[in-house]
Amino acid sequence: MRVNWNYIKITSLILTIGGLYGFADHRSKQKKVANISIKFLGDNNLYLTEDSVNKLLIQNYGSVKNRAKEQVVLNTIEKVIKSNPMVENAQVYLSIEGELISKIVQRKPIGRVEGISKFYLDDTGNRMPLSRHHSARVPIITGKITGKTLEDAYVILEFVNEDDFLRKNVIGIHIEEEGKYQLKLRVENFVVNLGGVENLDEKFKNFMAFYVKAAKDKTLEKYAVVSLEFENQVVCTKI
Questions:
Q1: Could you give the count of Cα atoms lying within 13 Å of 34 in the half-sphere of its Cβ?
Q2: Higher pLDDT, 44 or 103
Q3: C-beta of residue 66 within 8 angstroms of C-beta of residue 31
Q4: What is d(CA 98, CA 82) in angstroms, rounded to the nearest whole number?
Q5: Could you tell me where the DSSP H helices lie in the chain?
Q6: Contact of 225 with 191, CB cutoff 8 Å
Q7: Fewer beta carbons under 10 A from the terminal one: N or C of the chain?
Q8: DSSP 192
Q9: CA-based angle 106:183:231, to the nearest 5?
């Protein structure tokens, strides 16, 4: 009987590789987490600290450091981190060296509500709690706070943030009632009666035309109210 040595060699090689892979995989799983690295992505990383993330993990998952890699459930850790109201998204993975790496994106506030309840309005239009680590410099929202008026305030803030001049100068939105919104500016003494959120592009174009002319004429300080409520008009009330 003729022996097929090539077949035997290939089979032996496969078994050897499989054994080495299984041994390496077993050793990798037994390897302990050597370190924890928390990285905040983007430039909006002021509302949550590494220390607070570590405390969150310990309280809701237990100590991770020195735990065997096979005992670490990455999906569960991600869910724990995402449960923090300051977190928009999180990704967790283990490096070859045994380092647990967490990459976190924090939420971005665009307005701050000052009422019976105090909270931020974030860039997705949702409520975001205030942070004890940092106070955001964003427009203050006051007045009659309801679900609908907050939706409208979000629409106004989105529009404001797309324009460099408005973003730098609008410091507040006062809600008189639904459909009646008032803007407060950083430098000027007058307030801007915006009306509702319809035709914002047209309203702000009219406002900028008025502002440029009044600044040139040096008459801005003479006005108490600038109203954009009427179609294709800017109606001013003098002091």
A1: 7
A2: 103
A3: no
A4: 22
A5: 5-30, 50-60, 74-82, 147-161, 164-169, 200-217
A6: yes
A7: N
A8: E
A9: 120
